[in-house]
Amino acid sequence: MVTRISTCALEGVEARPVDVQVQIVSGQTIFSIVGLPDKAVAESRERIRAALASLGLGLPPERIIVNLAPADLPKEGSHYDLAIALAIMAAIGAVPRDVTEGSAAFGELGLDGGLTAAPGALPAAMAALAQGKQFICPSACGAEAAWSGGHIIAADNLMSLVNHFRGVRPLNPPAPGAAIDGNAVPDIADIKGQSRGIRALILAAAGGHNILLSGPPGCGKTMLAQRLPGLLAPLRAEEMLELSLIYSVAGLLPRGEMRRARPFRAPHHSASMAAIIGGGARAKPGEISLAHNGVLFLDELPEFSPVVIDSLRQPLESGEVFIARANRRTRYQAAFQLVAAMNLCKCGAESAEDCRRGPRCSEEYLSRLSGPFLDRIDLTVPLSAVKIADLALKSPPTFNSAQGQALAEGARKLQRERGDGRPNARISGAEVDALVQLEPAAAALLSSAAERFGLTARGYYKTLRLSRTIADLRLSEGNEAPVDQTVIRADVAEALSYRLPGQIGGTFGKAGTAQRARPRLISSSAFH
Ligand SMILES: [Zn+2]
User: Distance from the CA of 343 to the center of ligand 1, in angstroms?
Assistant: First the structure.
């Protein structure tokens, strides 16, 4: 006689159904788990033995075979404990057999029979619902699992489950966790001066563009970056779910609380490849996936490992990341908006003239960023130090985040009306040709600039996408609904101003000087 219960194997945020089959037959006393278990699954035998003993249940002195099917799907993690324990309990008559057959279980066991949370309860509960099964999990996962909308049974320990199934003390189904707004985002009204930085930030928010802020320490790069989420639209319901699945697998959904605000992740430059891109023992999502549908802020960009920086290229392009494993790969979504910041040189001098190590200092610093990586940045914004006069300005700020958000939202609305809701930064090359109509003077300007600065094909399309956003912002500022959405020369000129040589590395000041003094910088920058 075989008793069964369902559980799942997690591959990224996908929960693949796993059938747990238990057979107890007479013969030599063994307890074995087959079906490609990893070390944590194999160890569950000891936890199960102890947890059942805590209920006064001993394992029968017979052959206990646990099969996790399908056998070719690798099983990782400790969340198989509960399903295996319940199937054994059904086999020895401690819980009704028909209950386990109609259930999926997920959770780790303590030696005392307590149920411990395991990461990934939300995708697991959704998979159970898709199979038409009730979902049994630890209380600590209940609020998270309840978001699936399925029938959830959440308990603190095995004894409560036994009492529930016997009808002695029924458990109440858990309520979904709260949807919270998250921490308040600071306002752009706090920023003095830096009007060009604020303009670039609104463009980034309007079209989903990647942005690189460069300037001396203390000029407000971090302040600007932190204010970008305040200019973005709140998460839509489906985006909130996508993101919560990633946080669930990362074990970062405390109390099952989902956030409405877009994520803002700011990993330190010493963070490892696995921490940023994802990976490690169970191929956990990295910072780029935790920033999905939101902002990834990399301060002191050239201080990050060049290998880490270059590995951002593929996700920046595709919005997803594949983590290579021994014999397979795990996929996570990673459609983040990149905000990067950097000083002018490694020693953090106020300007090129102030650096005691001379031009080599900034050359070495910049050489850590590859041309193909910089090519994926849409807006490069040099910032200068804030003038004392700006700081002393007593007059109230003329612009705040609510106004910036309304402006950007107008441009986003035009984008939604034109397409499927993807921002301008994420439309494909073929779509660019259809969606970005240039007036003749704009086309002439772009082709002469492309020739003069040797724009790559990617750089050319990036400029077109950014021009589209600049035009959308201009059109949305008008009072009447725009009929003609043609991109004009001024739009293209502004877009090009965020790509011109001399802007990367900032205070090398005028483009001409930079071009003469640092030819290698230009050849390794966005223009080749
Ligand atoms: Zn320096």
Answer: 9
Q: 1-33 as b/e, with b when 16 or more CB fall inside 10 Å?
A: eebbbbbbbbbbbebebbbbbbebeeeeeebeb
Cα 347 to ligand 1 centroid, rounded to whole Å:
4
Compute the distance from residue 350 Cα to the ligand 1 centre, in Å. Answer: 9
- For residue 511, how many C-alpha atoms fall within 13 Å in the half-sphere facing its CB? 8
Distance (Å) from CA 302 to ligand 1 centroid: 13
d(CA 178, CA 75): 31
Burial class (CB in 10 A: 0-12, 13-18, 19+), 192: middle
Rounded to the nearest angstrom, the distance between the alpha carbon of 392 and the centre of ligand 1 is 29
Tell me whether residue 481 is exposed, middle or buried, using C-beta atoms within 10 angstroms of its C-beta: 0 to 12, 13 to 18, 19 or more.
Answer: exposed
Residue 358 Cα, ligand 1 centroid: separation in angstroms? 7
Separation between Cα atoms, residue 406 and residue 188, nearest integer Å: 13
How confident is residue 351, by pLDDT bands cut at 50, 70 and 90?
confident
From ligand 1's centre to the CA of 331, what distance in Å?
A: 40
| Residue 227 confidence (pLDDT) above 90 | yes
State the amino acid at position 52 in one-letter form: L
Question: What's the gap between Cα 307 and its chain centre?
Answer: 19
Phi (first) and psi of residue 384, to 5 degrees: -105, 165
CA distances from 324 to 146, 169, 278 (A): 32, 47, 10
* pLDDT tens-digit map of 135-191: 999 999 999 999 999 999 999 999 999 999 999 999 999 999 998 887 788 999 888
User: Taking the model in full, what pTM does it have?
Assistant: 0.89
**Which residues, in sequence order, are bridge partners of residue 402?**
none
